[in-house]
Design goal:
The protein has 16 helices and 3 strands. About 35% of the residues are buried.
Length: about 325
Amino acid sequence: MPSETTPAPHASEAERLERIAVQHPEDSELLLLQAAAHWELADERPRASALYDRLLAGTPKNPLLIKALNAANLWEYGHDAEARVLIDGIRAAAPRDAAPWEIIAEALEAHDELQAAHDCFSAGAALLIDGDEIPYEAGLLLAGRHRVRRLLGSPHDEWDALADAHHPGDISLDELHDPKRLWSLGSDNPAELRAEIARLRAELVERRAALSRPYPVAVLHWPEAELSELLAAYPALASEYPSHSEHLARIESSLRDLASTGAQAFGIVTATVPSYEAFAAAEQTSPATVTLLPEYATNLAARGRATPWPPARNAPCWCGSSRPYKDCHGVPDPE
């Protein structure tokens, strides 16, 4: 029986996500991107490229991101000439989105084209940095640039200092990007690998916490139809959601309790079952895992899906009832 890390489960998951994408066209782009990622993990890279081409043949929300993913994938199975054409096109388009720059720079870095990777990280950061304000996404590009410069043996410059200043973790970038540490990921010593994986997991937790900005507290809201579908598919989650009305009341109550402590910046993110299943697949975790729910909320908030709470008194209530907030969940003592 194949393990979770073998190609077969990834291929099955990719096929399942493709089927779900047909049933939920409103989420098809995200679902097909997740499916393509699973085809890559299954070492079925031509099938991943076929999905990227399919998305690009339509009207995707972020074509340059998809081209970047396709370039990185093509290079991995011998189509480096096509990958370079896509990378050159992305560089010429000069997107003001960090993700395509990060993907193509890391693809170049992975194939030891360190100077070209450095140039991509630098070009992307230059487009995103405006004065003294360093957006979070630009900080990621600066961190990648810092890593490549360490591999090149380049001395620290002004942007390296900025990368250090905006790095959220306890481990300094100089230590994190120590070439010896990076090379240890390719070690055949199990003890070295386990130690490095433990460090990376700790850093991932810190990064996820930072991703929820500007909403440190992001709460999941399941519309009634989506919650019914969720519980029908994953009855183990019924203990978290005894009923839809109680789910809504708990959201309002928990946010009011947090607000009373002086905390600020609350967001509500609306969940869908296909999106949640795609996130679970990406995390290689069952959707029935209760602890996955807050991570999913943080992920949605990081993608700009959060709406601030509380709404204005006369604005529509966050629950989707179309009633003013003051007459719905904004009443003084909601049940």
